[in-house]
Fold this protein.
Amino acid sequence: MDIERFTDIIARFLAVSGKILPDDIVKKLAELKAAEHMPLAKSVYDSMSRNQDLAASLDRPSCQDTGVVNFFVSAGENFPGLGKIAGALREAVVRATAEAPLRHNTVAIFDEKNDGTNVGERAPFVHWDIVPGSDKVKVETYMAGGGCSLPGRAITLMPSAGYEGIVQYVFDTMVDWGINACPPLLIGIGIAGSVENASILSKRALLRPLGSHNPNPRGAEMEGLLEDGLNRLGIGPQGLSGSSSVMGVHIESAARHPSTISVGINVGCWAHRRGAIVLDKDLSYEILSHKGVRL
Ligand code: SF4
């Protein structure tokens, strides 16, 4: 495997995903704008759309906060050079930081220093899945901005709190913090038996394409009910009130301990910079998130 080419592809893909929103988000923002009746909210959607046009035509990031880069890698067990991928992803972030460019966002814990590279201790954070029998690798990128990371929360509830307790926690979090995250928001919720599992699932929930649903019909129903309820808060685009507060609600789950229900919440803002690219072992690639884009 040509690790130099792999690194170059990922660096270019990071640059693209910092400038162009994924297809599903662009479509959803257009739908929310078309359904919006409040003049101020409509004008906010207009400015978001103009922002996207200018980011593309001027070749600049769609938001000044290009976030801290997270990678979610689904690696085929037969993909060559698996052991080199983590280093290549790190180098790709350094290159994209200089060339895209990406804002310098990585601050070293305790030393409180930012060396301007966007890499550091466990940064970029890489989450791994190994896919049996596959010789491809799927790399999902996520740029977690500061504002949209602020509402991130996790808690372990007593089982007696039930699913009503989850709903209460989500609403309390969104009422207190949602406005910081540049709505309309994509809400990722993880439900599990401990906070670390619930947290990572809530982030993974943000990677799911908009319009997808939890595979359990009850989970899908809960997603729909939460979406309706959160929209009724009337937060609106950029928190200036409007018909829609969220682009969607995604729930991911893992079996829990009978004595606990843990809930994790992660929030994505309207400038939802995520991307998904699949590379073959010969490094031909398919971009799933941004159709028609070439690197
Ligand atoms: S919440 Fe999103 S759109 Fe708002 S400043 Fe942060 S990254 Fe940018």
Summary: The domain at 147-268 is CATH 3.30.1330 (60s Ribosomal Protein L30; Chain: A;).
